[in-house]
Design brief:
Length: 528
């Protein structure tokens, strides 16, 4: 008889603590980068990114950063896989949620090297190789890149950000969030070039960004998605693509030609406006699946548009708002698109459910960042007015939780079309502060109210992706709370990355006020 000895094995899993590295323009203390008091200087920013390991973060204070003090135009900043790089700190914050983007980003990654003017600037401000969406760039202005070299498969591309995922086995698809990509230049893709050529992939997530005043010498002033015999299909959410210029496709170029090629980006709650094609088609966007050898339409370019506005784009030839080349398709639903000069074949594919063509009535389309010259604020010119037909005219599934100025969607029951949610509600109460930080017992939420009503309560919600939230607790109003301060500890978080928001509502369940979303990256997760 055989006997089997069963020995239980106990595994101790040690989750190593992630490290946050700190950078300011001047540096401080010992310059190790391990605290604000010992921050690395501007010249050490790339070193801090290079030294980071999976799960680490790099925090960058306000100011301007160039990759080199030399005149070497080939040098650029590089992101790192599974490392999150956050900008726009004042230099005193202890949690990510304390960062304030109320005037847009204030950390500038600049290509302005050498002498004054753009001619000797860095070819790319940011240049990336193989990256997944876990590589994050958040809270930066990216400006001053100029790749004016003769176009090859690796040159003349992406003055602001170049995502190089070309050739089989390569994939450059980072997350670009809360950024302003402006005043960059290249032969193709002045602002961003996504290179998925020849079996490669470059399909980044571009969220809550403003891509403006970029120029391409040939095509794709704002963004160029190069999926020729490969895949370049970014997801673009809650963003503005405005005031960009190129001879063809002032705003966005999508080329998915040749066998196996695909460039089918999705755009959700975006505004594509005031872009110009100065010598050809497509002021706003072109979808192109034509073969590079002019043989047949063997690739794919099926652009998906929802809850977006296309307005005031111009083209020297056809398709001021969008153009079609080959057998590509422009699939738009629940969007506001000026179809005045859109003649066949430059027409919407399919039924076009929920689309409107009337003027969206921007507050001031000629002043997109408003009188305060700050992006992402209440006076931004591409906010829609109260009488706009875009109000309550969108389609809710997958809607981002916040609009471009960090205000909550959805007001009323249906999301607005565009990047800004119209909300006329002016309450007598307001959240003065809302913070989340890791403590021994879990994640502690703290908030402060300006005023409050006794028939209301707070609902605490948590998300692991910033979009889908679950209720985790209820706290009633404290009637004798002179400071209007509250705390709640989430001791059951299952993830190291969590988003939190508060809903302040009455006992009938009517929404009165919703907080901004705060993000906390904890060092460990609670075991199941």
């Amino acid at each position: 008889m055989k006997y089997f000895l069963i020995i239980p094995l106990l595994f101790w899993v040690n989750i190593s603590a992630a490290t946050t590295r700190y950078v300011t323009t001047t540096g401080a203390g010992t310059f190790t980068g391990l605290s604000w008091q010992n921050a690395a200087p501007a010249s050490g920013l790339q070193l801090m990114i290079d030294n980071a390991v999976s799960g680490d973060q790099v925090w960058v204070a306000c100011g301007t950063y160039v990759v080199t003090a030399t005149t070497n135009r080939s040098l650029s900043f590089h992101m790192r896989n599974n490392v999150e790089v956050y900008g726009s700190f004042q230099g005193t914050e202890t949690t990510l949620s304390q960062r304030n983007l109320s005037c847009g980003p204030c950390s500038v990654l600049s290509g302005e090297i050498g002498g004054p003017g753009i001619n000797d600037n860095s070819f790319h401000v940011v240049s990336n190789g193989n990256l997944s969406p876990a590589a994050v760039l958040d809270g930066f202005v990216v400006s001053g890149g100029n790749d004016d070299r003769a176009n090859t498969l690796n040159e003349g591309l992406g003055g602001g950000i170049y995502n190089q995922g070309a050739n089989v086995g390569n994939n450059s698809s980072p997350t670009i969030r809360n950024c302003v990509i402006t005043n960059n230049r290249a032969v193709f893709g002045g602002g961003i070039f996504n290179n998925g050529y020849n079996g490669g992939v470059s399909s980044p997530v571009i969220s809550h960004c403003i891509i403006t005043n970029n120029t391409a010498i040939d095509g794709g002033g704002g963004i160029d998605n190069f999926g020729l015999a490969g895949n370049a299909s970014p997801s673009i959410v809650n963003s503005l693509i405005i005031n960009n210029t190129a001879p063809t496709a002032g705003g966005i170029y999508c080329w998915g030609g040749n066998p196996g090629g695909n460039s089918s980006p999705s755009l959700l709650n975006c505004v594509i406006a005031n872009n110009s094609a100065t010598g050809g088609n497509a002021g706003g966007l072109i979808a192109d699946n034509s073969n590079s050898f002019n043989l047949q339409n063997s690739g794919t370019s099926n652009v998906q548009i929802r809850n977006c506005i296309f307005r005031n784009n111009t083209a020297a030839m056809a398709g001021p708002q969008f153009a079609i080349k080959g057998t590509a398709t422009f699939n738009a639903t629940y969007s506001s698109i000026d179809l005045t000069s859109q003649l066949f074949p430059h027409v919407i594919s399919g039924a076009g459910t929920g689309n409107i063509s009337s003027d969206p009535q921007f507050v001031n389309a000629n002043d997109p960042n408003g009188n305060d010259n700050c992006w992402m604020t209440a006076d931004d010119g591409l906010n829609i007015s109260s009488s706009s037909t875009c109000v309550d005219a969108g389609n809710n599934p997958g809607t981002p939780a916040m609009d471009l100025r960090f205000m909550n969607r959805i007001y009323n029951s249906v999301v607005d079309i565009g990047a800004y949610e119209f909300n006329p509600l002016s309450l007598a109460v307001a959240f003065l502060a809302f913070d989340a930080r890791e403590v021994g017992a879990g994640i502690q939420l703290s908030w402060l109210m300006e005023d409050e009503k006794p028939d209301h309560y707070f609902k605490i919600e948590r998300s692991i992706n910033g979009f889908n939230f679950d209720s985790i607790g209820i706290i009633g109003i404290i009637t004798d709370n002179a400071s209007m301060g509250y705390r709640y500890i989430d001791s059951e978080s299952r993830s190291t990355s969590n988003y939190y928001r508060l809903t302040y509502q009455n006992h009938e369940g009517k929404l009165s006020l919703r907080s901004r979303i705060v993000f906390v990256h904890s060092r460990t997760s609670t075991s199941l």
